[in-house]
Amino acid sequence: MSASGPRLQPSLFELSRPGRRQDKVPHPPADALDRIPGEHRRAGPAGLPEVNEPEAVRHFVNLSQLNHAIDTGFYPLGSCTMKWNPKVNEWAARLPGFAQLHPLVPDAVAQGTLQLLWELEQILIEISGMPAVTLQPAAGAHGELTGILMVREYHESRGDMNRTDVLVPDSAHGTNPATATMAGLRTVSIKAAKDGGIDLDAFRAALGPQTAAVMITNPSTMGLFESRIGDLVEAVHAVGALAYMDGANLNAILGRFKPGEAGFDVMHINTHKTFSTPHGGGGPGAGPVAVGEKLEPFLPAPRVLREPDGTFRLERVGERPTSIGRMRSFVGSTGVLVRAYAYLRTHGASGLAEITDDAVLAANYLKDRLADSGAYDIPFPGVCKHEFIASAMSIKKSTGVRTLDIAKRLLDHGFHAPTVYFPLTVDEAMLIEPTETESIETLDAFADALIEIAREAASDPETVKGAPHSAPVRRLDEAGAARNPNLRWRVAAGDWTPCPD
Amino acid sequence: MAYGPHTPADRQRMLSALGMTSVDELFADIPESLRSSPLRLDPPEPEQSLMARLGGLAARNRVDLASFLGAGAYRHFSPPMVDQILLRGEWYTAYTPYQPEVSQGTLQSIYEYESLIAELVGLDVVSASHYDGAAATAEAALMTCRATGRGRVLVSRAVHPHYRQVLRTYVDGAGLDVDEIPLVVAGPAGGTTDLEELARMLADADHPVAGVILAQPSFYGLLEPMAQASRRSHDAGALFVAVVEPVSLAVLAPPGGYGADIAAGEGQSLGIPPQYGGPYLGILACTEPLLRQLPGRLVGMTTDVDGKRAYVMTLQAREQHIRREKAASNICTNQTLLALAASVWLAALGPHGLRDVAAMGAAKAAELEAALAAIGVPRVHAGAYLNEFAIRVPNAAAVHRELLSRGVLAGLVVAEVVPDEPSLGDALLVCTTEITTSDEIIAFARELAGVVATLAAGVPAAEAVGAPA
Description:
The complex is a heterodimer.
Chain A: H1 12-15, H2 53-64, H3 87-93, H4 96-99, H5 111-128, E1 132-134, H6 140-157, E2 165-169, H7 175-182, E3 186-190, H8 200-206, E4 211-217, H9 229-238, E5 242-247, E6 266-269, E7 289-291, E8 304-306, E9 312-314, H10 334-373, E10 388-391, H11 393-399, H12 403-412, E11 419-420, E12 429-432, H13 440-459, H14 461-465, H15 478-483
Parallel strand pairs in A: 2-3, 2-4, 4-5, 5-6
Antiparallel strand pairs in A: 1-7, 6-7, 8-9, 10-12, 11-12
Helix pairs in contact in A: 3-10, 5-10, 6-7, 10-13
Chain B: H1 8-17, H2 47-59, E1 66-67, H3 80-86, H4 89-92, H5 104-121, E2 125-126, H6 133-148, E3 152-156, H7 161-173, E4 177-181, H8 195-202, E5 211-216, H9 226-235, E6 239-244, E7 262-266, E8 282-286, E9 299-303, E10 309-313, H10 320-323, H11 336-374, E11 388-392, H12 396-405, E12 408-409, E13 412-413, H13 414-417, E14 427-431, H14 438-456, H15 461-464
Parallel strand pairs in B: 1-12, 3-4, 3-5, 5-6, 6-7
Antiparallel strand pairs in B: 2-8, 7-8, 9-10, 11-14, 13-14
Helix pairs in contact in B: 3-11, 5-11, 6-7, 8-9, 11-14
């Protein structure tokens, strides 16, 4: 087996040649480590690759070119909000005053960052309609865990010790039930109603004195606004439980719906979705959590505080004993939060409202074009929010071509595929989220490609089933990868040179 | 809108296609009673003004100090090639490689990251990344409970206090127990984990231990008896977790070498800027038998239908999007871009460069220890250390404050972060790396001598200050 094709790269380890080195840092004195007892020392140098700068840079540049990215093309990955990542954000996060600041410096030398974080909290308070925000969680799922741990702490603080259940619709992201488990709670999955929305009666039947919280994504993972949400939140509060809103789809409701005003007690926000911080090939994100008054005492520590004299400081260790504690080291993913702050300042109130309007308009336009073509099933034909579901159910029945095949064929057209087979509640689902930063020409071209693929599925199904044909590699042996996991390069003995010192 | 493409004519065209006259019609599904009050925020800000605002905020932070602060976040030299690679949009504007055929760059880079870290820690399985060292340590603790079916974790009090706090949050959440192993109070092993106490805690048959967690080097910079702790843990049927600082692994024994089952740690030191706390890189690695307990993504090598070498996310049956409430963790978004940063940094330095970085930090630390000893400021502990150690300074908080006004960031006032370790009530934790200069060390010793002398003479520090250095 060997790497081939014009752009595929050998592994970094195969580029290594003993003695090929880069003099990036000065040599330490020869006796630098003499005072370290032998029992603690490493026997020989780690088997890391030895490459020179040109080889290393070419390696990583060539690798990068194997990726589809927002910077290279349309990325309608539903539920992930792959919008434009502004370049000024990258500039901001790299300002030495932000980037080189150590997280444990005294507050007096971190006033710029502390002010930024405090102002960001105020903006998120306004957007969420809730009175307090923590910026500490490192990602959406981390925010979910933070929120549900606070819910648990709230109930326990009232001596209400038997609330074990978290109610989650069956269309929810997998992180919701996984979060409940991590917080020591039990997930109760509730089936959606026929129209794709909340089944109020099913929820009412499951609610009771054992319910800790209900977790709702609104708009739902089907891209639908949950119009019965007011009644649900009321029913949740009537049994003494709390209402959690998964804010993954916040891009659809800025300026139109504030979860706090609608009665939600807690929500997380994905800065890498709604607020344009880059997805980084899988991360980092940041998952600020907004809470109502009931949960404010339990926010993780430390919070950012503004003193009466206008200076800012972090809470001291143990200052607020009601806190659930820490969710991560230091303050939070500040570098990500700087980017989110830049984005929010850029848009302001009117710009944020426009984001939502344009994102919803684009999704509906695209949905309408596909519906008009008749090529795909559109299970929920009414108005959608920022994303919508199309399905290849009928195509599969008539041609044997599946959603997976269509997704792969889209790659040949230069588009990233939508999210596929999610939510789990719709067969052959494609969750399509165009975002507000794609032009009408791109939306049309994408619709044309999907319609063309549907036609091709009938005329030449094998071509679709064999796709992609023009990507750097074709379909992968995923079963083999799982059966015989190869999770690391094995360095052969003698590949490295002993250290000359 | 700042980044939107739509002209009024475009919007009109889309609305007409939908048979609508106003975008408000698209929000008619929000019941009247739930519609929000308008956003009360500032107006939009053009890029030029925004850059001035951000530049002003950044300038209010001070990053010009002679810094001896480490304590879990370390400043290292980063060759310009690293950030130039990271600024390629193909890396940072992609997402999780759900479509592997058009994500081979990200996938191969994760596989290479897994391989590089595996070399450093001496363990075969490395997760694609966790949020930070603290979250990785907490996940490691939960792994030990799942793997052993036991519900109690022991963590040394020499593990970073933030990690211990996060561990408590996670472990409490899961309904498990965590107990802290005290430190040896004095003598040659002072400040290291008390192995006799560990043995006693492990022997409690009513509360069997799932995992034991020690850090190497410890939060106080000391080298811990990892091999002995590992052996004792295994003798009691517990797993052993090493919390590591990856740069140190260029010169220190790898966790796999002393029998650790899991290594967790903070990857920030691999060339990632401190950024006031993140985004960082949680390292989590384990032995092969624990593979199915490992949370988070894994990338494996495979082939495509033509037999070409390719990479793919694998063993996803552990993950939340498949297993939902039965998943090993709820982690979804991780720190892939930071894993790439670490890989590029390691490729730029190579094995010898990395060793030089670690050894130079140690050399500078010895220089600092000597300079401070010369002015009568001793180390708190007697044991071996690599590049970070605690010093005893009367009235540590006041001294630290005074030195700050003289341009020296004198490490960490231990009591402010660890208020419950009485033996370190007057300690500063100081650190050097390869970027610490001899001039900074001289300035630190000179200013510290002056401040200690004036405080000893009973003169309030503020009045004793002469001209700034």
